[in-house]
Amino acid sequence: MEISENLNDISLWSEYENDTLIHYHKLSTIYKKRYQRASDLYNSLHNLFGIITVIASSIASTISWGDDIEDNKKILLTTVTTTSAVSSAIQNFYKFKETSEHLTSTAKNYSTLQNKIENLGNIEPSSRPSPFNLFTQLQHDFNEISSNRQELSNHFIKWFYHKKEDDNSYLEDKKKMYMKRYSLDTLNSDSNSENVDI
Prior knowledge:
By secondary structure, the chain is mainly alpha-helical. It has helices at residues 2-12, 15-63, 71-94, 96-121, 131-148, 154-161, 171-197. The relative contact order is 0.15.
């Protein structure tokens, strides 16, 4: 009786359901990495323009210390001051730091979802909850994150935020292991039932 109940539970998790779980795992991993890379880029831009502003301001202060400023120094002072002002304006206008923090938050949300999927993938199929309820909840979680996230540029995704290995999921190996084990258990139970009949 126990064996047949387990077989029924496992049958809820057919190849299609396992592939769907793997698909969700890949999506959460890809989005987590994309948003983390985007956050890193915006944080780097914030730091870059901040450094330019500080250096340009320091140079401008040093040049303007003297009472009499020569003409060639006036041109340099104007250039450096303009550079500092433009750099600061770009930093404030594009809000690199705030954008980076928002992207990091989105990456963390996808990471939480990825961990949830991995915890389910590590459980034997017979012990997992119903795939229908699970997939409904996962889709709801993806939709909720998607509605609150900042969209990324397709060009930036292509050139900066995506790598080929992002599509890999260790749950594919887990699936093969579980399917192999399930096949062996089924084979053993069939052979035992044949022995009982004899």
